[in-house]
Each structure stands twice: as structure tokens, then as C-alpha cells.
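Incident log entry.

Two folding requests arrived from the same account within the same minute. Monitoring flagged them as a possible duplicate submission, but the sequences differ. Recording both here for audit purposes.

Request one:
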Amino acid sequence: MRKRRSWVFAVLMLASLLFAGYAFAKHRRLSAVPARGVARRDYLEQLAHDEPTAANYKLLAEANIAIDDFSDAQRSFAHAADLYRSKNMVSEGYATDRLAERYEVEAIPFEQTRTTVEDVTQFDSSARLEPTYGCYTGAFIDHEDSIHGTYRDEYATWRRDASAFNHLTGIHHAVFFMYLGYGRSFPAKFVRHMNDNGAAAQIAWEPDSLAQVKDDEYLHRFARDAKASHTPIFLRFASEMNGDWVPYNGDPARYIEKFRLVSRVMHEEAPNVAMVWCPFETPVRTLADYYPGPEAVDWVGINIYSVPFWDNDPNRTAEWRNPADALRFIYDRYAKAHPIMICEYAASHRSSLDGVERADFARTKMGELYASLPRIYPRVKAVCWLSMNAIKHATPGRQKNDYSLLGNDWVRRRYREVADDPYFLGAVSRSKPAVARQETKELRDGDTIHGRVPLSAWVKLYDDEPRVIWKVNGTEMFSSSTPGPYRWVLDAGKLPVGPATIELIVEDREGREAAHSTRRVVVG
């Protein structure tokens, strides 16, 4: 026994010495890394090749950023994310994907044409209340202080007038939403107000506990009252279930059981109700564990926000985050089977952390998100803005940002500009599915153009303020530095009949060309 112990001790000592030697060698190697510049990048490139770990590829990405080689930085971060995922480190992979997305460069030209239903059926899954093509606009307005018109509902709560919000924003919204505790009666007055204003209702129905949710008279009465309202209703049951801040997090199997119960009752008794399953953007590690399945879910939702600081932490700046990137995980996983609803979105124009007004930040983020929807996310069929000063009205602990569209004129005007597009729908059709009157499709080589041609672009850059330039046959025709769809109208009637070249050029704020797309078309 004593000999065996000695042998084990010797093996452990040898392993300890080998590990210490490896750690020392690695420390010595890393301490020899050049301090900066191309030499540092080259050294770390060799290190990542010799020792292909996620950590080494992240070091390489950071070295590429330091020398403004953003494309290689993007690739290195993406490779690090793949390495995390190969080890089943889902959250780490997702976090590193965020870094990779920050340095992506895209420039894709689009044209708007009259919609032909046959061309857009590929984007339609015929779910309840789904438009064939296009995206409903929506909003939450119950704490929008600039609206003086109110009405009192059956719970003695004062609610804001939807028509006043439509008038003040200049946009007719298709959906308005409210929060309702599970156990309360059907919100008949809110839903009637929506119907009177030509809108649908989104109800965020939130239980205090999954034990509340039973196959009982309350649930069936709610379904019957919903049907009797004759109003399109998106029922968002127990949303953000993947977050530990809600009371129904932690037991995915029971959550799925209760969601399926509610869905079965609504599907059987209320044909005007669409069931919405809506996680938060993060965390993603357990998100799919809560998915109730395609039979129970009509729409898949997501809640995302653009803020200057994550969790109001001054050391966690979030200004660089493109909100379109927040859609990818949900979209890639579920959009083939379901229409996608952005159940809550807003961009902050003021943080409680420092009180600084950031209208430009809000304008940039809304421009980025709304431009992405028809161009890269055509299966997103609804987007709802939470228009509220949360610094004033949110529950304690969440009073961090001002999202009010009406609290800043610059923000309100920009919202009207980005939402005033034929792609966005101002009503949920009560009969046949709605279809946006214009289709947004990629401009391709060989396309024939004639007359007045509305052009736009999807542009994504490591820089939030790129300059986008359009040239036709080598002549600059339009330029803009306002993030969004970069829309303009080309009068093809003024061009010679025959071949023509349309160029989309993107420059960063230093004036460097970052992207260049060329399309060779035919003027008819």
C-alpha cells in the first residue's frame, strides 16, 4: 500500500511539474508578444495557428482592431465563437458572436417595386393574423406623458388614446399592447378602444406563478370574451421566460405544459387570437428549452432594446451594438416555421446613469433596425415600440432609460421617417391577409429598370456613422450620413437606353472606403 501511495504521489508531482512548465512556457511566450502594431498581429496570428484556442483568436482579433484591420478582426472573433460552441459553451459563443458582428461590413443595394403576390408568398407561412408580406407597426403608450387624451378601463387604470399617438407620430399603428396580470378579467375596454381605432391588441399576459394556470372557467371565459371582441389579438403569454427576473423561469417542462394548455384553449375557442411565444434576446443558453413547439406557437416573438450602457454599468458601453444583430439567433432558428414579432423594442435617448440627452443615438439605432426588416429579415412581420420614459415610470430597479418617442422632437421626427414606408402596415386585416403595396428586393446584375426607381440599401459597418454614396455611370447622384435605408429615387428616364452601372459606396468617418457594391443593369 505504501509503494502504491508513493507511485501515485510521484505521478501527481510529475503532472504538476509538467503543468507548471507549460504555464511558464506559455507565460513566457505571451510576455514576448510585441507591444503593438503589425508585429503584434503577426505574432498572435502564429500563436493562434499553433494553439487554436478561443482565447488566442480573441487576442488576434483585438490586435487586428488595433491596426484597423476590421475584416480580419471579424473573422477571428467568429472563429473564436465557433470554438466556444464546439465545446458546448453556448453563452460564451453568443457573446463572442456579438464582437464578430460589431466588425461586419455589408453594402447591398435594393429597389422597391410594385408587389406581386406570387413573388412574396415565399415569406408567408399562413399563421394566424400573419400578413402575406409586410410588417405591422405597433406601440406601447400607456405611460406616454405627452398624450393628454385618456380613458379609464375596468381595472380603474387610466390609459392613453391611440388616435392621439397616431396623430402625434404621424404613423397609423396596427398594434398597441398592454400588460395584464394572469387572473384579471379580459381587458374589454382596451380591446374595444383598439378596435375603434382600427388596431389589433397585443396582450402581455403574465402569471405570478405557473401554478395559477389551470384548465378552468377563468381561462375558458377569457377565451370566449376574446372571441366576442371581434378584434385581432396577439396573446403574448408569459414572455421573457428565459430570464431569471420573471417568476415562471426555471422549469422549462412545466412552462411548456402551461403554454400548450393556454394555446389549446385559445385555438379551440378564439379564432381571432394568435399565440405569441416571446423570449428576451438573452440569455440564449436555455432559450430553446422553453419552446412549446409549432402546434402551440403561432408567432415567435423577441424583446430587444438599444441602450447606451448595459445594465446602466458605465464600464459596459453598448452604443456600438447594432439592434439588427439582436434578431439573428431567434430569426435563424424559428423564422422558417413562424412569423417573427418584435414584441418590444425601443432605443434610449437618455440614461439615468448620466442624464445626457442622446437623440442621435436613438435616431441611429431605430434607423438601423427598421432598415433591416424588409431587407434582411422579411419574416419579421410586426415591430412594436415601447414609448415610455422608463426613468420615471418603470418599476424600481428598472428605471434606467427614457424611450419616449414624444419626449424628444428629433427622435419623433426620425421615427416618422423610418416607419413611413410602404413596407410597414398600419392595420391588421380582418379578412384576407394584408400585403404591403411595395416589395423591397435586392437589385441584381442584369435587372431592367425604367421610369422612377426607388432605391435603398442595407449597410452595416464597424462605424455607426458611415457616409453612403450612390453613383450612376460614374456620377454621384445621392449621398447620406444618416443611418437607415438610404432611400432615394433614380429617374431612369434621364439615362440613355441600354447598359448602366449603379454603385453603392460606403466610407467610414475617417473617409476610408469600407465597402463597394456594383450592379450592372439595363435601362429599358
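Request two (distinct sequence, not a duplicate):
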Amino acid sequence: MHLPSRQTLPFLRDWGADPVGKGVWRFSIWAPQADSVAVTVEGRRTPLRRYAEGTWRTEAPAEPGETYLFHIDGRTIPDPAARAQSGDVHAPSRLVDPTAHCWTTRWKGRPWPEAVIQEIHIGTFTPEGTFASAARALPRLAELGFTAVELMPVAQFAGRHGWGYDGVLPYAVHPAYGTPDDLKRFVEAAQALGLMVILDVVYNHFGPDGFHLAAVAPVFHPEKATPWGQVIDYTQPPMRRFAIENALYWLAEYRLDGLRLDAIDGIDDPSDPDLVTELALTIRNYGFDRPIHLMTEDNRNITRYNDPANGLRIAEWNDDWHHAIHALLTGESHDYYASFARDPLDDIRLSLAEGFVEQGQPRPPLTEPRGEPSGHLPPTAFVIFNQNHDQIGNRPLGDRLVTLTDPAQARIAHALLLTAPMIPLTFMGEEAGTRTPFRFFSDHKGDLAASIREGRAREFPGLHGDDLPDPNDPAVFHASRPDRAPDAAEWEALTAALLDLRATRIVPLLKSGKPDATVTAAPPATIDALWRFPGGTLRMTARFATDPQATPPKDPPLFAIGDPATDPAFALWIED
């Protein structure tokens, strides 16, 4: 029996407010250009002392629940590393005792080959949009066979609802979802069901409203920008610690199982080691008592972070897989689908065999090569998906794949996703065939709201007026909750059967070592794949179109969908 245990402070941060004794807190902030810095706690003012690199620090009497603000050369700002706010992103920060929560269970984590991930957005995952209501919805995912949930960012952003990628308080839990302890209770509820919890974190930019630190410190590179905002200057050691400590903070204080690092190609850091490498090595050397899993999103298709030989053990979100599947099933060829629309079936073949599709080879109509060879990486170095928040929500109307293609083809793609030896990820509702859109939404007012509307209109010039949803219309947010489809039970039965097969027969193969892969593609739309693992052989056939020339397999498959003679079909065999 495990008795409740009070959490201890994992480490003393270089940023923010931490308890250092009964009724005493340490306050720290970086303001290298300031002449004077003070903190007020419920109106009680204490000056801070300047230390190396322009960090200011003091200890002052304070209690959990009290509010505080920093005063820097006459400017008043909330704590950029606050654990919570007393209101919106402009309000005073609130002291949260990180040791108050009592964990009632032990958790030793799960190995990466067991990962089957469902990506969820807390605000739309349930009608209530809270950590508490999301926790109550988790048993169904565990019963279907999922082993992990990945949360879209929960750090506080401006407004009540949004995707979370424009956060401005990376240490604070977004209050519309609940309190810091509510998130910890969610994590514990998930882990009690055997579900790992992975958090999406954003280190490539800050949101446009409420990041007050930039007014008092040289946070950004003066001449560089990302598509989403100014480039953070990680050559500044305090900013580097801000990000690395943030990663440790989420993992240590919230007992998370891993992190997804959003769009690391937007991190421009010439340091050696660069931020991602140092962050990963710091986590690996921290001494966690459970496996910690890291993922990156990186449009460059580079492999140095994902190669096990480098010791970083980072998996990569493989957008190439999605693009090839999407181009095959929908016929779309615009924008980044252009190079995948030429021969999507062969692209799926290459992705199943080697991971990335674009590996530096010529890929018309691309004018410059993209990517590096990836065949040396194990399949578990890649996270694959048929859809995710980006690939649904960045469409003008937020269409899901099942609404864009034949349902039989969608089921074949689902079966291939959940049984391929890469790590599968689904987006909330996908496991039940939901047709509900997931749209881009935010909660801004005035000029910022207008600029977002104008930006969407420029991005999708073929849609005008009411044809293009207004991201700041609350109805767009509410309409993005996954409804239960009429055939949900059939989809869930398929998902459960596939994930049971994965857990009992495929995961042991993944744990046995890297396979040799042989994958072929044949017209009109058939993939035959074979992976020889040290522990056995996995073989499958996926046919996405009717083929009058097809013949039934000679040996009965372990699992099958569709008519193996003619119709879109999927079949799988395992030999020990």
C-alpha cells in the first residue's frame, strides 16, 4: 500500500518565486539593463540585489496564495516564471506552494515502444474543458488500448480559449483549465490507468499579448523572426536557463512522462551545444526515477537529435507520413502536398521502410532539397499520424480526414497507422471516427483580433466573409469539440482490436531490436511491407483502392479488414 506523500521541491529555480523556508520565499528575475528592481507581495515591498549576468534576487516573507509583482525601473510586471496568475496574463502573479500536493500513487512510467498516443486539447476534449473533466474521460482511452496522452500546451496565454501555442507565461497553468493541483490530479488519474502524460511545450517564440519580460530585458534577437514572432536569443545564458528549467519544472513538479518540443526549426541558436541538445542532455542526466520521453517537431528532416548513437533519444513527429497518406486519400496537391502528390503511394512505401520521405533527394516541385537520410534510425524514432491538431486545424474549415475520403480507405489508413512499427499518434475523436471539425480559435480583442482575421483571410484567399470562420468567434471554439459519430462504436471496436494486437504481438517485436525492412508499392494503390525483427517477422498488406487483379492471400492473416480479393483491404501476419 502506498501512503500519500507530500511533494518535495525538485530544485531551486534561477527564475520566479520558490519557497526556501517557513514563511520565506526567494524571488528572482533577469533584468540586465535595470538600475533598480523590487518585488511587492500583497503590497509589502522588498528590493532585489543584482547578481552576475544581470539576475536580481532577494528573499522576502510570503505565504502561498498571496499575490506579487516585480517593479523594474518604474515598470510593474507579473512574474514571467510564475506558477499561476491571480487573473489574466497582465494580472499580479500568485504564489503556489509546489510541495503542497500529495501524490497518492507511485508511477514508474512505461518504455517508449509501448507508446500509443492520443493528442488532446484540454479546452475542447470535454464540454467542460477542464483538467477535472478530462480526467473523467480517460478510462475510455485506456480501455481502447491507448498508453499515452499528449496535451497541447497548457501554459497560460492571453484570453480564455486558444490552441496554447501563443503562451506568454510558460510556467503558469492556463486558469480556464484549472489550477496547478488540478493538473497534477489529472496526471495521477492518467497514470493510475497506465497512461503516460506528455506535454507540448513551445520554446521557439512567445505570444503577442502579455509577455512583459521583453520590456525590461533583451530577450529577442534584434534582427531575426519566426513566422510566429521574434526569435528568442538563447545565446543569453539566463534565457537558456529559462527554457531548460521550464522543461525540468514540468517533468519534475508535475510527474510528467515526457515533452514534445514544438517547431524546433524555429529556434535559431548557434551555440555549441545548441539549446535542444543541452536541454535533452540535462533531462537525461537529471536522475528521474522513470523513463522520460522527448519528441520534436522539425520541418528540416534532420537526424542528429533522433539518432540513438548521440544519446539524446528524441523521437521525431514525421509530417512526411501524414503528407503522403493525405495526398493519396484526398488527391490534394496544394502547398506542402505538392511534392507528395506526384507519387504518394511510393512515398508511403519509403516512409514505412526508412522514416522520412524527403531525405535530401530531388523532389519536384521543390527547388531545394530537404532532409537527410534516415534509414539508419529505428522505427520508434518516428511518431506517425494520419492527422493532428495542425493538419486538421490549419485547414480553413478544420476538416478531418474521414470527411475528405472514402470511409473504407480511412479505415485502411487507420489500421496501417496503428500497426506499423513506428509510434502511432491519433488526434482526439479519431479513434471513434468523429466528423467534428477542429478549427483554429483564439480569444483576442481589438487590433490583435482584427490582425488575426486578416491573416487568415490572406492565408485562404478563396474564402470570404462567412465562408471563413472567425477565430475569435466563441462559436468556432465550441464547435471544435469532438462529437460522437453515428458509427462511433464500429470505429472504437476497430481501434480496440488493432491496439490489442499491437500490445500483445507487435510491441514485443519492437522491444527485440531494430528490424530489416522490405516494402514495395504496386498500382493501383497497394503496399506490401515486411519487417524482420530479432524477435520475429511482421508482415502486412494495405490496399487503398479496388483492384480487379488482386488475389486472396494464400495464408490466412492474423487480422484483416475488407475483401482481400477486390475491395480496399488490410491484412497482417506475424511469425515468431
